[in-house]
Design brief:
Helices cover 50% and strands 13% of the residues. The protein has 123 residues and is α+β, with helices and mostly antiparallel strands. It has one domain: Zincin-like (2-Layer Sandwich). The chain has a 3-stranded mixed β-sheet with strand order 1-3-2.
Length: 123
């Protein structure tokens, strides 16, 4: 799947999110990249560029106080090549995986930990 088609799937996934979440999201951009860069790989302590499907970088909503303002947008990265490989290896639909990763990273924006999101997904 080429980068344009992947981007289109990401845009559709975002457009299909419940409106109550979309309306609550402020100052966030979603980018699709082939891989995390070397600095992100070091920061996240991943052994391979394929080990990270997505990443939220920014100030989670619960941490934004009255001094929050003038900050650059938070960024949600969706990493195309790792997602595509994971889908091939696990027989998962790419659009479904993109949505799952996007929702997970938006969860970080709202201040949920990985553990909390895992618990939510299991209910």
């Amino acid at each position: 799947m080429d980068a344009d088609e992947f981007q289109l799937l990401a845009e559709r996934a975002y457009a299909q999110l419940p409106q109550r979440f979309v309306q609550a999201i402020d100052n966030v951009v979603v980018l699709t990249d082939d891989f995390p860069d070397a600095a992100v790989q070091r920061e996240m302590q991943v052994e391979s560029a394929y080990d990270l499907l997505g990443l939220y970088q920014g100030w989670p909503l619960p941490e934004r106080g009255s001094s929050y303002g003038g900050h650059p947008p938070d960024v949600i990265h969706l990493y195309r090549q790792p997602i595509l490989l994971w889908c091939r290896e696990n027989g998962e639909d790419v659009a479904h995986c993109i949505r799952h990763v996007l929702v997970h990273e938006i969860g970080h924006y709202f201040g949920f930990s990985d553990e909390e999101m895992t618990a939510i997904e299991q209910t």
